[in-house]
Amino acid sequence: MYAVNLLIATILLVGVNARFVQQEEDYRYPRHLQFQHPRLLASARVRRQAQTSLSLNGDGSTGLGAKIPIVGNDKNVLSAIGSVGLDNKMNTASKGFGLALDNVNGHGLTVMKETIPGFGSKLTGAGHATLFQNENHNIGANAFVSKNMPNIPQVPNFNTVGGGVDYTFKNKIGASLGMAHTPFLERKDYSAMGNLNLFRNPTTSVDFSAGLKKFETPFMNSGWKPNYGLTFSRSFP
User: Fold this and answer.
1) How far from 142 is each of 91, 106, 124, 215, CA to CA, in Å?
2) Ramachandran angles phi, psi of 20, nearest 5°
3) C-beta of residue 132 within 8 angstroms of C-beta of residue 64
4) Helix or strand holding residue 43 (H, E)
5) N or C: which end of the chain has fewer CB within 10 A?
6) Would you give the DSSP letter of residue 156?
7) Using CB atoms within 10 A of its CB, is residue 30 exposed (0-12), middle (13-18) or buried (19+)?
8) Minimal CA–CA distance to 58: which of 229, 235, 234, 233?
9) Cβ-based neighbours of 71, under 8 Å, separated by 6 or more
């Protein structure tokens, strides 16, 4: 009976909510964390600057993000965060809001609630930490857990957990590896990305990322596919 229910749920999630599945194929970070590298703007966070971003993805989708400081000092800042995701037809694919706590050393925590049209909602808790840092090298790690709450008959709530590591050289070029697991769907997602900063000044950053991603389930293996995007970030005093 469990196998039958799992198959029904998988068909519903893939068939009825294809847009959601497409949006979620890259589990390296939840989407609201993808709009900026957590360490590239670390000093801006400590100065309590508001931040906005625009991400253009290779599949034609777009992401908009914002972070507005609420309270903080020279060590930690608590901010309100929000995001809107658009599909390749400029329809709303997701929207969310939450809180982020950032530390001057590059550590941080976020909690976000997202609404996904045609699917339901998702609550995500995530964290990132700097493992090593000097004037040339930066190594970090991240992890998250998401509680997916579909508005689909006979499909219960289910969790996705994941994490990854990333490396940056002189805040200019870097790479990251990520993996996530959704036990209910018996699905695993993998990503391997390279990152390049194209432009940066005290208030603006333009970053390009490219790499490969894939997912595996008992019923399907996507194989490695190209994944790329361009992100514009802007901070305000």
Assistant:
1) 30, 11, 13, 19
2) -65, -45
3) no
4) helix 42-46
5) N
6) -
7) buried
8) 229
9) 77, 78
Q: Going along 87-119, which residue ranges are E strands?
A: 92-103, 108-116
Q: Residue type at 206?
A: V
* Calpha distance 136→168 (Å, rounded): 8
Summarised one tens digit per residue, pLDDT across range 135-186 is 999 999 999 999 999 998 889 999 999 999 999 999 999 999 999 999 999 9
List, for residues 64-119, the tens digit of each pLDDT value. Answer: 999 999 999 989 999 999 999 999 999 999 999 999 999 999 999 999 999 999 99
Backbone dihedral region of 198: left (phi > 0), alpha (psi from -120 to 50 degrees) or beta? alpha
Both structure tokens of 72: 């903080």
Alpha-carbon gap, residue 102 to 189, rounded angstroms: 27
User: Tokens representing 5?
Assistant: 């229910």
Ramachandran bin of 39, using left for φ above 0, alpha for ψ from -120 to 50, beta for the remaining angles: alpha
Contact 176, 39 (CB under 8 A): no
